[in-house]
Amino acid sequence: MRLMTSDYTELSAPGHGYVTGPLRPDMAHDLLERYGFAVVHSPSGEVSAEDAHREMAAVRAGLGLGEPYAPLLYRDRGAPPVTEVTRKPDADHPAFHTGAAQGWHTDGLLEDIGTIRTTLLYCVRPARGGGRTFLLNAGRVFAELGDRDPEAAEVLLRGTILGRRSTIPGAVREAVGPVFAALGDGHYATRYGEGRVERWYPRDAEEQRCLARALRYFRSRRDDPDVRIDLLLRSGQCLVFRNDVLAHGREHFTDDPRRPRLLLRSLHTDAPERVS
Ligand SMILES: [Fe+2]
Hints:
single chain, alpha+beta, Double-stranded beta-helix, 6-stranded mixed β-sheet, binds fe (ii) ion
């Protein structure tokens, strides 16, 4: 996979990026390999939830993805493998069921780094206002940090530096691991995030200082369109992204109560493969 600075500059227009023709997984493959994400869209434009489920299955098949993965956090809660991301009056999930902004994170709170390689987000209905999805080329920022401040970068590779704690009421669980791990091809898997779930575990004062520099560098870089893209999905558009190499977040949104924002999400432990 090549994730180049200049590529992200081209893709920085909100609501755009490269949207392929109707469910064109052949093109989506190239985009995924080049950028780590692709947006495919429905041939029918406006879609129902049933259409969306059917088209997500078509996207999965076209990209050679297996069945959706049930994350550890929800496995014992009877959650369906394709999650509805929408506001609910009895919100029991701090991100799925509210219109609040969601900080930078990767999916798979309790999974080991790199486990959930692909996320699909299918937009059935956009919000009345806001609700953009942000993608960050975290590996690129990490590579920059490694050049500038190797000691700070090294701390992010340490296997017990970052705990992520479930914020769902009644399910207090935490998984500890590194922020980055080498994939062996010159790229890095990531579980970078800065929101409400992170707990940082520097071993000593020196590591604390290195960590502070590392996180400060990420904050200074993550709004730069060279490494970030904001996407406003429209009805019938499906965002496919490499959750193991890109961090993501969400802008807050407001709803038309008669037509609330509805996205469907599925997670996958495999990355897209070419299907002949
Ligand atoms: Fe997410």
